[in-house]
Amino acid sequence: FANANSGTTVNVPAGNYALSLGELTVGGGANLNTIIIGNSPATTIIRQTIAATRVLNVNPSITANVAVELRNLTLRDGETPPGNGGGGAIYAGGPGNSLTIVNCRFINNRSVLSDEAYGGAIDFNGGGALTSDESRVGGERAGRRGTSGWAYRGKKKFIGRTNPSSLSVTN
Q: Among positive and negative, which fits the CA dihedral 105, 18, 118, 32?
């Protein structure tokens, strides 16, 4: 439903959601704006169970002007697929895109399958704006040249091993 309808808000009740069919995808095509809201990061947990599979791929078609917001979630145990960029939990970015993360936790996500792996938790690549408020990373890993927490690629890359209470970056 969310991928076919722009302006969708998805409310995810408290629970431990084990992904067993691959990564979740949101954004692109007809869906330009999506908000996903959990109960709290302590009680709404989305966990990847398949090896070499990330948790969430935002806008895999790289459509311009896609906006996604995540609130009150934990994304854990994701791993970047071989030869498929970084971001064990989230891969996102594109012209005019925005990803807003509020009160989320990232735990044990990995981007280690190549030396060029960026962002154990998030790889934001291709332009746009990444905004985070009150979100935390912990236990993330990335390749030898990557950043363990978040990577913003474009004109600059940044942030490894930090837990900013507020972060906003625009390219």
A: negative
